[in-house]
């Protein structure tokens, strides 16, 4: 006779990773709300990653060109969105410099106090 399998216990190790990935995706989606920025990232990210891979298989200038073009597309998307590119925002944060994580147009505005007179 075999012991019953505790599926809840077996699934537990994957939950922190799933939570982390879900939170990372939510943060990414929050920073890429403009339709143009979102769409251009669908081109730019694979192109930049492919550029890194191509560095190992083709002459260096093909891989470097693909990487730079992919990153440039993402940069243009963030210009349209109105926020800093993720890597630059992280560097600025570490250095204590001001950065724009989420474009001001997408940030939730605090609720207005009906008794407040402007």
Could you list the spans in which at least 5 consecutive residues all have pLDDT below 50?
none
Beta-strand segment tally: 0
Number of helices: 5
Mean of pLDDT: 83
Structural class: mainly alpha
Percent of residues in helices:
55-70%
State Rg: 21 Å
Order of helices and strands: HHHHH
CA(first)-CA(last) distance: 76 Å
Main pleated-sheet profile: none
Strand fraction:
under 5%
Shape: globular
Question: Concise description?
Answer:
The chain is mostly helical and 118 residues long.
Descriptive overview:
The protein has helices at residues 7-11, 14-31, 35-54, 60-81, 86-95. It contains five helices and no strands. The protein has a domain at 28-103. The chain is mainly alpha-helical and 118 residues long.
List the helices and strands and how they pair.
Blueprint: H1 7-11, H2 14-31, H3 35-54, H4 60-81, H5 86-95
Helix pairs in contact: 3-4
Keywords:
0% strand; 118 residues; mainly alpha
